[in-house]
Write a structure and sequence with these properties.
Layout lengths: L12 H26 L3 H9 L5 H8 L6 E4 L15 E8 L2 E8 L10 H17 L3 E7 L7 H20 L4 E9 L5 H4 L3 E5 L10 H8 L5 H5 L1 H8 L4 E3 L2 H13 L38 H4 L9 E3 L7 E8 L2 E8 L3 E2 L1 H17 L3 E7 L1 E2 L3 H5 L2 H14 L4 E10 H6 L9 E4 L4 E3 L3 H18 L6 H18 L2 H6 L12 H12 L17
Parallel strand pairs: 3-4, 4-5, 5-6, 6-7, 10-12, 11-13, 12-14, 14-15, 14-16
Antiparallel strand pairs: 1-2, 2-3, 8-9, 9-10
Helix pairs in contact: 4-5, 12-14, 16-17
């Protein structure tokens, strides 16, 4: 074994200060997660309970195997918007009858579970994850359909929900709908396009148009039960495959459906694994409060990979990027971790070669971000930083092994792209509370705008207002700072969640297990032209 040494001193003032700063960020994160857990608030939660119904997360808990973990995805969706944190939808990965499944559950305490623009984005992201990883999809349905005041942002892109259900089925990925309440209008196509449908007696209401709409459109008098009740769909229309007497019975039947799917992982689960040699609690004190201060990512790697065992690749070349081979929960991984923040030509070429090697060996890649981007300046431009950075981005873009990304610190500029940011389709992407991501740092961006404005004034022969410049710079810095924070980005679904650093190994292990449900093969060729 090549066990990583550690130089970390948990008793040092720097480590303690970093830890305290991280704990403060985690407290803020917990407060925002609590908003998602609260749903529509106590009033609507109690109203829901009085109707004899379970909450969304209670339904998920009964569906899952006893003591099985649930990796919730995008819990902060809609953060910073006019909509409730969580976007009236719970999504995540959990184990049902021994099968890893992608589970979605409408939260009917938030505007009746109606879908808003962020609910739609969250649902589409969940479908993408299911398709890429061949995870069966279980939809726990209770929704009034589109949130009508925002229909202009939902109606046209919303059709992709139904498209995805048919594509999942066509790909041999099972889809199950369990209907607990309303599934109306366009929402009726969720059970309509699912492989297996379970409806709850006297609760499920599945119709394209409810009684008022039918009356307006045709003049026909009708009621919910005869128009779209569970018993009607089980006995008459045939839309319901299974008729449940209550919610627990519906979830029991959903578990039986999954048990009979004969859905198998492409790769067997690994055997027993050795935990890291170092305490994951120490991860709290590694990232400095000021991201301009560098830190050694090997200290992170040592606390998340099996046995802290890491074989570094090209350790003496391109030292601002650490690359190497390890195992994580028994799964082989290639790790790319930013060391000193800036990526130079050497780091870019090193990364491209390493990514090609991982593809030759069919090894998934883990990207640990702390980069301010590719180096700028006359010397580096003349040295070919553009073509070398492009080489790294080319390799990332055309790599076919699964990618996982974790934003630990800075993730700025094209460095975010080269390290497999959201636009490069990592299977999963998570952020630590210490992470920041933007086109560049706030001070740099404000400074660039200031220089351009000053040069423009000089070119026109006009005096420059230094007071106004200072005010503008302060305003821009504040804006970019707020827009680069992880909760802001997570609210827009630019990641799959902001996680406690201590949970990194567990989260990545769950993701790697899900990834290995689907077969994959690295690119043996097929890369674009590498400019040499």
């Amino acid at each position: 074994m090549t066990v990583l040494p550690t130089a970390l001193d948990p008793t040092s003032p720097d480590h303690r200060a970093n830890r305290e700063a991280m704990l403060a960020k985690l407290a803020d994160l917990d407060a925002e997660h609590a908003k998602a857990l609260a749903g529509g608030g106590e009033k609507y939660v109690q109203r829901h309970r009085k109707r004899g119904k379970l909450l969304a997360r209670e339904r998920i808990e009964l569906l899952l195997d006893p003591d099985a973990p649930f990796l919730e995805l995008s819990p902060l969706a809609a953060w910073g918007s006019d909509y409730t944190v969580g976007a009236s939808l719970v999504t995540g990965i959990g184990v049902v009858e021994g099968v890893e499944c992608l589970i979605t559950a409408n939260d009917p305490t938030v505007r009746g579970g109606a879908s808003n623009p962020w609910s739609l984005k969250k649902a589409l992201r969940a479908n993408d994850i299911a398709l890429a990883n061949r995870l069966p999809v279980i939809n726990l349905v209770e929704s009034g359909g589109a949130d009508l005041p925002s229909q202009k942002e939902i109606f046209i892109p919303g059709g992709a929900i139904f498209r995805d259900l048919t594509r999942l089925s066509a790909a041999g990925i099972p889809t199950v709908a369990v209907v607990f309440g309303n599934s109306t209008a366009g929402g009726a196509y969720v059970p309509g396009m699912s492989d297996h449908v379970i409806m709850v007696k006297e609760r499920a209401k599945v119709f394209l148009g409810g009684p008022p709409l039918v009356k307006m459109a045709t003049g026909e008098e009708s009621d919910d039960e005869s128009l779209g009740g569970a018993e009607m769909h089980a006995r008459v229309s045939g839309l319901a495959d299974y008729f449940a007497v209550d919610e627990p019975d519906a979830l029991r039947q959903a578990r039986r459906v999954v048990a009979r799917l004969n859905h198998r992982k492409a790769y067997p689960d690994p055997g027993p694994v050795e935990p890291p040699k170092y305490d994951p609690e120490e991860l709290l004190g590694i990232v400095p409060g000021d991201l301009k201060t560098p830190f050694d990512p090997r200290e992170v790697v040592a606390r998340i990979v099996d046995g802290s065992d890491f074989d570094e690749f090209k350790p003496l070349y391109g030292t601002s990027l650490v690359t190497g081979w390890a195992s994580l929960h028994g799964y082989p991984v290639g790790v790319l971790a930013n060391a000193q923040g800036v990526l130079f030509s050497e780091e870019s070429q090193k990364a491209a070669q390493f990514i090609q090697l991982a593809n030759q060996r069919d090894i998934p890649l883990l990207f640990l971000h702390n980069t301010t981007g590719y180096m700028v300046g006359r010397e580096y431009e003349q040295g070919g930083i553009i073509k070398h950075g492009a080489m790294m981005i080319n390799a990332v873009s055309n790599s076919r092994v699964p990618h996982l990304s974790v934003l630990m610190g800075a993730s700025y500029g094209a460095g975010h792209y080269g390290m497999c940011g959201r636009a490069y389709d990592p299977r999963f992407l998570f952020a630590w509370p210490s992470a920041k991501s933007a086109v560049m740092g706030p001070q740099q961006l404000a400074g660039v705008l200031s220089i351009v404005a000053r040069q423009s004034a000089a070119a026109k022969g006009q005096p420059y207002d230094d007071e106004a410049d200072a005010a503008l710079r302060a305003m821009v810095e504040q804006q970019i700072e707020s827009e680069s924070l992880p909760m802001f980005l997570s609210g827009r679904l630019y990641d799959d969640g902001v996680i406690d650093p201590r949970d990194t190994r567990t989260v990545l292990g769950l993701c790697l297990s899900a990834v290995h449900t689907a077969p994959y093969e690295g690119a043996r060729g097929g890369f674009g032209v590498f400019r040499m």
